[in-house]
User: Fold this.
Amino acid sequence: MSQREQKKAEAIETWNFVFPNQSNPYGNMFGGELLAIMDTTAAMAAIRYCGRTVSTASSERVIFKRPIFVGDRIKTVAKVVLVGRTSMMVRTDVFVDKGGDEGDVLSTTAHFTLVAFDDERNPAEVPELIVETDKEHKHHELAQQIKAHVGRREERIKHVVEKWS
Ligand SMILES: CC(C)(COP(=O)(O)OP(=O)(O)OC[C@H]1O[C@@H](n2cnc3c(N)ncnc32)[C@H](O)[C@@H]1OP(=O)(O)O)[C@@H](O)C(=O)NCCC(=O)NCCS
Assistant:
């Protein structure tokens, strides 16, 4: 039996200027626009990690902590923090670049689960994640808790989902 590859995850950063057409009527950045940037950056991180094409299976625990305004510069940082056999959970943080003493201010955090595919679009095995630093352990543990929580939630609502599907 071949040994599963082990790998460290790389943090992927994307930068954006927030344009007026990305805002809601009150001048805040529209959440859907932000999620598109976060999902795309998460996909980049997952692709770099597994070297395959991927699709987003779910997004969890999206926390819009501080608003983002038109004209803000935003930095989105995504990194694989937990893997299953074919899926990867990617923590994605968005910071507003305030400059000066304030620096980067955390605005939004979400966890996306992406699935890797082979050439026939069947789920394909991803490398095992190497978790080393304190920060990586912290993020890994949070991701495990989110995954466990989602599992319990799905179990609780299973009968409703079955009834209405
Ligand atoms: C994501 C998708 C491939 C999963 O297909 P599936 O038939 O459930 O595949 P499997 O049962 O083999 O599961 C594959 C992996 O996905 C995970 N998965 C499936 N559905 C999931 C969900 N809703 N949330 C989190 N993980 C999920 C499984 O746990 C499994 O992970 P593991 O191998 O690490 O244990 C399929 O539902 C799909 O193609 N969805 C559409 C994706 C899409 O269009 N996204 C938006 C644009 S990118």
